[in-house]
TrEMBL record:
InterPro entries: Epimerase_deHydtase, Lipid_A_modif_metabolic_enz, NAD(P)-bd_dom_sf. Residues 11-240 form the NAD-dependent epimerase/dehydratase domain. It holds the Pfam family Epimerase. This is NAD-dependent epimerase/dehydratase family protein. It comes from Natribaculum luteum.
């Protein structure tokens, strides 16, 4: 993938061994000096390119942050506790990882005058009053995770307003693609693909009428590269496709693309789950030049092919 004009920079990717961070690292490593900060809680060593410098440590550790940010030009902050469910079980840990560590990172970026592109989330909106959701719509997060992401999204804007730091918040909707590994706390697509390929039941929480805006990893990377060079600093952007897919429809499409015998079963709805979530992307289109390039179906087929090859 092209680096979108991000060249010859010293780049720190926190969570650089994770799903999104790993894709960013591979995209940037040939044309930049890439540093990865990851503690491998959910990250994977296979995601770390050989040419990158690895700092294996916890992003909550302030000495680590100081070392990792030394002389950096650009920071992609992807390290997080990404599970909404985990944050409900353990709000304090969510706060430490998602909020406190981000604040420390912003402080370090201020000292280095480094641009920060920060992973915010659609979870900040909570139950939306209407879809698609615009950036200025009400924000009533339903989970500690959503609250943490809302807090750092505000901090990013404030660091621009108060200190002139170049920050951009990207409010990811539901990212998916090759490299997203199924686990108790990972995204629904990776879970459904693993279930389908193992011939196990596909577990839909609740009635499956809840909808999500699934955005393919290449387009997440595209938005990050645009955020790294845009003049629209101090701003937050939705990163999605504008297309709503219900979880039931997702389960059925997974059945199709994997050609599985797996049945769809329904379990209890998930506490703190958002009912509908679709991004309005006009702001990202107009100001970043963002344009989704991979459809849900195409992305799912590519991801299924990857999952099958594992
Ligand atoms: C995802 C991200 C979160 C945040 C948010 C933004 C993950 C793990 N979380 O949260 O970080 O950015 O998107 O919108 O990527 N489901 C099932 N069966 C399963 C697993 C999930 O039906 O086995 C349902 C679940 O109840 C929910 C939907 O699928 O309605 C999506 O769940 P998710 O955990 O993939 O993602 P979400 O939207 O909670």
């Amino acid at each position: 993938m092209q680096t979108g004009g991000v060249t010859n920079q010293t780049v720190l990717i926190t969570g650089g061994a994770g799903f999104i961070g790993g894709h960013l690292a591979r995209t940037l490593v040939d044309d930049n000096e890439v540093r990865i900060l990851d503690n491998f809680t959910t990250g994977r060593r296979a995601n770390v390119p050989a040419e990158a410098t690895l700092i294996e440590a916890d992003c909550r550790d302030e000495d680590t942050i100081a070392r990792a940010t030394q002389n950096v030009d650009l920071i992609f902050h992807e390290a997080a506790l990404v599970s909404v469910g985990r944050s409900i079980e353990d709000p304090q840990t969510s706060h430490e990882i998602n909020t406190d560590a981000t604040l420390a990172l912003l402080e370090a970026a201020r000292a280095e005058d480094a641009r920060v592109v920060l992973a915010s989330s659609a979870a900040i909106y909570g139950h939306p009053e209407r879809v698609p959701i615009a950036e200025s719509d009400p924000k009533e997060p339903m989970s500690p995770y959503g609250l943490d992401k809302l807090t750092i999204d505000h901090y990013a804007r404030q660091y621009h307003e108060l200190y002139g730091l170049e920050t951009v918040s990207l409010r990811y909707f539901n990212a998916f693609g090759p490299g997203q590994v199924a686990g108790d706390y990972s995204g629904v697509i990776s879970i459904f693909l693993e279930q389908a390929l193992a011939g196990e039941p596909i577990t839909v929480d609740g009635d499956g009428t809840q909808t999500r805006d699934f955005v393919y990893i290449d387009d997440i990377v595209q938005a990050n590269l645009q955020a790294a060079t845009t003049d629209a600093v101090g701003e937050a952007f939705n990163v999605g496709t504008g297309e709503a897919v219900s979880i039931r429809e997702l389960a059925e499409t997974v059945q199709e693309v994997t050609d599985t015998e797996s049945e769809i079963v329904h379990t209890n709805p998930r506490p703190g789950d958002i009912d509908h979530s679709t991004a309005a992307i006009a702001k990202a289109e107009d100001r970043l030049g963002f344009e989704p390039t991979v459809s849900f179906r195409e992305g799912l087929e590519r991801t299924a092919a990857w999952a099958r090859s594992r």
